[in-house]
Amino acid sequence: MSLHPLFWHWWLVGLALMIVEAFLPGAFFLWMGISALIVGVVLWAAPGLGIVFQVALFAVVAIGSVLAWRRLRPQKNAQVAANGLNERSSLYTGRTFTLETPIVNGIGQVRVDDGQWRVAGPDLPAGSCVRVIAVEGATLRVEKAD
After folding, report:
1. Residue among 37, 56, 54, 58 nearest 46 (CA)
2. What are the DSSP E strand ranges found in 56-138?
3. In the beta sheet, which residues pair with residue 97?
4. Spatial distance between the Cα atoms of 104 and 109, rounded to a whole number of angstroms
5. Which of 113, 111, 133, 114 has the alpha carbon at shortest distance from 122?
6. More exposed terminus of the chain, fewer Cβ within 10 Å: N or C?
7. What string of DSSP letters covers 33-44?
8. Running along the chain, 146 residues long, what does each successive block of 10 average in pLDDT?
9. Domains of the chain and CATH, by start
10. pTM over 0.85
11. In contact, 140 and 118? CB cutoff 8 Å
12. What burial letters (b/e) apply to 98-122, b meaning 16+ CB within 10 Å?
């Protein structure tokens, strides 16, 4: 008994892999499913291809498509850095704020949006305008604003 899959067998395999992708997202099964669909289209156009060629074609297209996707997909870290996501403090560099409490011995506080931030800089009275020049952990490094 020999195995002779038809084009629609590959289409079913491709559809099944795409369904798996819906439950296990990550785009890996998506490209495997697309590869199976491509093999089905090739087999539909040339129905006499052997099983060895079909499996080899599936392997080449699947590996190639997964590698191409991994290389060409948008990088998450570049998007995060560009949006400032999870780096809210970096968005404050260059902004000007009014001191809530005076800077005494180099330490004070400013109100930023809906929260209080610790600031470090030259001693200044409360109500002074300061500009953020750097962020050091949870402390904003400030200077007197002109």
Report:
1. 54
2. 96-104, 107-112, 115-120, 129-136
3. 130
4. 10
5. 133
6. N
7. HHHHHHHHHHHH
8. 80 93 83 93 91 94 90 65 60 88 92 87 91 88 89
9. 7-73 (no CATH), 88-144 (2.40.50.140)
10. no
11. yes
12. ebebebeeeebbbebeeeebebebe
